[in-house]
Amino acid sequence: MFAQQDLSKYHLYSLRRCLGAGEPLNPEVIRYWKEHTGTTIADGCGQTETINIVGNFPGVETRSGSMGKPVPGFDVNIVDDSDNVLPDNEVGHIATRTSGDWPVGLFHGYLRDGELITDSFRNGWYFTVDTASRDADGYLWFVGRSDDLILSAGYRISPFEVESALLEHETIVESAVVGVPDETRGQLVKAYVILTAGVEGTDELAKEIQEFCKNLTAPYKYPREIEFVSELPKTISGKIRRVELRGT
To answer: Is the separation of the CB atoms in 64 and 30 below 8 Å?
Structure first.
């Protein structure tokens, strides 16, 4: 919401450090914020079930778009479905090691009808619901919630990556991307798009946006369906409720 304002009207250079929470910010928002404040928004990763377990720390290089590195005291890594640590630049589950001393602030399970449910723990790891990759320097890069990933024609597609590409288009204020059923591909990439004031959503604009996305991402990732909307369903904390969009 800040980035949708004309920040040149405000004197924001007294800001020393800015943090992002809720959902990862796309590169265009981070670029615009830095242009007007001189600060790079420091992202991180944490859940209600944990404390902050990954972050961009003062005194350490902040890489725009990265969640940063594991918080000291936590062994956080990228793990596959078989509980193995993955090589650099491969997408897997964000997991925290639980073997040995129990990580500070990590819960022990969900209490349901008086029973402790521990499905999120296995083979010495706690599995978050998020996926990411790790680069050669140990920085983690968010991909998406595991249940939000789109499987289309054998490809795993991150909604966040497509949404970031969409927001580079000058007519788009906000977007949400989901997978919708398709008999041939399994799922298709569908985008719900909010346009800037005064811009009308037309078939011609939808085609223009699709071609724009093809030039920013791999061709198979572009949204094959685009629906223009006036608002997106969100939680109180501002996270997009993609589960509602998948049901429409």
So the answer is: yes
